[in-house]
Amino acid sequence: MATSVKKTSSNGISSPPASPVSGNRIVTLDEFIIRSEKDFDFATGELTGLLRDIGVAAKIINREVNKAGLVNIIGVADSGENQSGDMQQKLDVYANDKLIECLKNSGECCAIASEENDDIIHIPPIGTKKNHYVVMFDPLDGSSNIDVNVSVGTIFAIYRRKSDPSAPATKEDFLQAGVKQVAAGYVLYGTSTILVYTTGRGVNGFTLDPSIGEFCLSHRNMRIPENGATYSVNQGYYSKFDLEMRRYIDNCSDQNYGLRYIGSMVSDIHRILIQGGIFLYPSTRKYPKGKLRLLYECNPLSMIVEQAGGKAMNTQLKRILDVVPNELHQRCTIAIGSPAMVDELKAFIERYSALPL
Ligand code: AHM
Ligand code: MG
User: Fold this and answer.
1) CA 266 / ligand 1 centre spacing (Å)
2) 120: which DSSP letter?
3) Contact at 8 Å (CB) between 319 and 313?
4) Which domains does the chain have, with CATH numbers?
5) Model confidence over 294-306: pLDDT tens digits?
């Protein structure tokens, strides 16, 4: 019987084991998850169950996203603003509810934190079962784009809890550095719907085949190109960026890099994962600490990108996955993507942040 040996490189990232499936036959997400379970350190089936729950919720959300224009579900929800002060879209609320419902019904995790909820949500255990995981998600990232049919996505992260499994989960279970994630992923509701995830052994993508209602393995062991020809930033804020960021953007332009910015982070990151490039959300006057959320957006996408061979840091040059959060809805700056491009930006920041203004 083949055994999988966990190999860890100097940066702490495990290299992928031999693929658990082979040949050209269709491999569904459920089959892949179950076959990969043996590679996981604490294989009890809980993590497998959680990933399957998220897969089910993603299919339900996908159905609703795809018929959004037909059923008057697009637009701003009655609840108004969420914790982070953004307008909540109706589909945000729907996606949030479905994820919570799917995770609650299976009872595989002990608590949830969502970008759309102020506080953590406890999940009552089923019977005497002790649950060891907490789940965090942004149910519908980029949702301000829904009304104009631009792709949106779900982002998720799973952590092993720190607190005693026989007691209720605590906020500390969620305030762990991203390097502690045991799994992370996203679902992009795009021209086709794709679920991409990692459990720390490489990154795999599964495209939803609507005819059979299954996510099927389509992108095996995804690797980000070392370099790219595009940069992704809201250049409308150029005058509000720090000097070093402006110099880097000038350099991108001088080098004839293309500018690609969808305004939906999952979509931008998915493109970069496949084609290479860099995504930036630096500090602006409106968001001095950055706009994006560390727990729900930056950490899971950083784990995916690192697992695919890329890099992710904040504009203080700290690896995103090493930042220890101190609040659930903490924001952070981010530069993420092809390793050579992130290194190039790092050199610009080191050079220009040393200059007097
Ligand atoms: P959201 O979680 O409220 O949708 O906000 C996050 C989104 C990202 O998907 C996207 O990269 C960014 O906000 C766009 O912000 P901006 O319009 O300031 O460029
Ligand atoms: Mg978001």
Assistant:
1) 10
2) -
3) yes
4) 29-219 (3.30.540.10), 230-352 (3.40.190.80)
5) 999 999 999 999 9
- Which sequence positions are flagged as catalytic? 86, 92, 115-116, 138, 140-141, 297
> Please, is 150 exposed, middle or buried when counting C-beta atoms within 10 Å of its C-beta (0-12, 13-18, 19+)?
middle
Whole-number average pLDDT of the chain: 88
Instruction: Give kind and range of the element (H or E) at residue 134.
Output: strand 133-141
Per-residue model confidence (pLDDT) at position 66? 86
**Averaged over 144-156, what is the pLDDT?**
90
Ligand 1 pocket test: pick from 140, 188, 269, 292 the residue with the most ligand atoms within 8 Å of its Cβ.
292
Stated pTM of the model: 0.90
Q: How far apart are CA 191 and CA 121, in angstroms?
A: 33
Q: Which ligand is nearest to the CA of 270?
A: 1
What percentage of residues in the chain have a pLDDT greater than 70? 85
Please tell me the distance between residue 264's alpha carbon and the centre of ligand 1 in angstroms.
6
- The secondary element (H helix, E strand) that includes residue 80 is strand 76-81
Ligand 1 atom closest to the CA of 92, numbered from 1: 4
Give the separation between CA 324 and CA 177, rounded to whole angstroms: 4
Give the pLDDT confidence of 172-223 residue by residue, as tens digits.
Answer: 999 999 999 999 999 999 889 999 999 999 999 999 999 999 999 999 999 9
Protein residues whose CB sits closer than 6 Å to any atom of ligand 1? 86, 115, 138, 141-144, 234, 263-265, 291
Q: Whose CA is nearest to atom 12 of ligand 1?
A: 263
pLDDT tens per residue across span 67-123: 876 766 666 666 666 666 665 568 889 999 999 999 998 888 999 999 999 999 999
Residue of the CA atom closest to atom 16 of ligand 1: 263
Cα–Cα distance, 87 to 305 (Å, whole number): 29
Instruction: List the structure tokens of 202.
Output: 């490489």
